[in-house]
Amino acid sequence: MSLNESKRILKNRKPRVNAKTSSVEAEDDKKTKVGNKIDTKDIRNLPVSLQRGKSNHKWLAMMTVLGALLLKLLNEYNNRMKNKDTFYTHNVDAFLQYSKNNTFLTHLDGHYKEYPFELYPENITFMGSEYIKYDVEEAFLYTWEEYYFNNANVDKIDYIVEALDTKLLMFNNTQSNNHRVKLEYLIQQDLAIIKYAKEFGISPSVLGGLLSSYNLFENETLLKKSFPDGATILNEQILVIRNNLHSKDLQENDDLDIQFLNEHIVSASGVDAKNRSVKHQDLSSKELNINDIYLKSKEYHYDNSIVNISHFWQSVYDIKINNTKSVNSTIQLRKKTKVKKSNPLNKLRYIDISTQDDAVDVSYCKLPSSLLTVLTKGYDETEISKNKNLFDDVPDMKDNYGYAMELVRSCYHIFMESKVPLNKGGVPDRIIFMDAALSGTDFDGLILSKYGSFYFKPSTVDILKNDDILESIYYAFYASKSKTFHLWIFEIFQHYASLLDECQYDKLWFSHTLKYLYLSFLNDKEGIDHKRVVLTKNGHLYPTTI
């Protein structure tokens, strides 16, 4: 083929037909020709193909934010429902505001000069609940110093043993240097007295305090390091009591005390657990399962025939059916508070076990403590929902839980409506609810409560002691984690703070009431785990593994 022929063929060849460019690609080509300086933050400056992807990511981000917002609103709603009773206390920021003020209990370090060392002013920077924890420590030290240093003729050994585990708990958790050195000095003094107590004898009634404190010395690293001979000193006294126990003493001590003493003797002496019934026949007591331990830790029920957990539930059923009554309170609710007609918050349920004029002993507030202890087995509501199989043996769980909470609220009303100067000691002697038939001289010596829910006979004894109302609210708070109950406990603490200079102190004030107040304001890492520890009726700590 000639050269001219080749040129002719190439010249006459039809051009190749290119694929039709899509509108998207055409738009992309157009944008790429604009230049390199493209504002990619503006989606309109991106290629159309990327605009579509960018749009998808944008919608995904919007849905994520919306989901997070809905979750936040749901949590806030649940918290409002959990704290629906906060109309009792209008100031929900009470902890924070209290910590910002120079309170009655703060900066009392120089009040007593009996300490053989110098105390230096502290710059207290705690806020909220931590500050109240600090002030509860102040309340303990203030009242203990008043009792210990100014009552030379009082038999101190029972007080010392009963209060020791409260001191240990505070020493182990305090954030105040002055409190720590004070508590260390007081604990060393207590150990010295207990060490030589065998010279004049020590009552079996303090067995619970010795066992509780021994357990803390053995299991808390800081206490073991700070007081290396503490457990040894207490063990010597426990053995002395054990060797001197008689049948009468065994009857005076609770089953839980004797059971824990049994286990202590076994572990402290190294005796094989299989042989303990042979070695310690004089301390024979039946084995307790976990439900019995929770039941025995309170040891207070209206039916004296209760011997096991089945009898307890039968007793609760009988009390609910035959002894539980309701009365209306005229408390003024806040306008924004919506109350369901099926469960009005101004209707109080109480237990009437007397036969004369419907006079009620405030001790009925011990029942919700026992009920919540046995019901929850030391778990809170969240943990219970995740471990429902552990509560198959609990009858009518939801109904009994609600019943206990209603009794707790009525107990709070007894405290709240009876706060008058004439009622010394904080808790009235007797309560007569408004549905009782009273006339004439029946009203003599009675005071109408703040909201007219009941009449009460004020306590005339100016002694601070154990507080069953506080105990019941504490267990309600531990189980529900509701801020409402926390505020109620705070209100009780403030009330006691105003009485410290006016009252004397029973030993259970140190072992029971102050311990419950202190535990209420510890964080989760500092507090006790009620699945592993029970509090006895005197406020002493026993492990559930006995």
Automatic annotation (TrEMBL):
- UniProt keyword annotations, A-Z: Disulfide bond
The keyword Transmembrane helix appears for this protein = no
| Entry GO MF terms | calcium ion binding; mannosyl-oligosaccharide 1,2-alpha-mannosidase activity
Q: Name one GO cellular component term.
A: membrane
Q: Where is region (Disordered) located?
A: 1-33
* GO biological-process terms attached to the record: carbohydrate metabolic process; ERAD pathway
Q: Which InterPro entries match?
A: 6hp_glycosidase-like_sf, Glyco_hydro_47, Seven-hairpin_glycosidases
Disulfide cross-links: 365-411
Q: Which family does it belong to?
A: Belongs to the glycosyl hydrolase 47 family.
In Swiss-Prot or TrEMBL terms, this protein is called Uncharacterized protein
What organism is this sequence from? Answer: Hanseniaspora guilliermondii
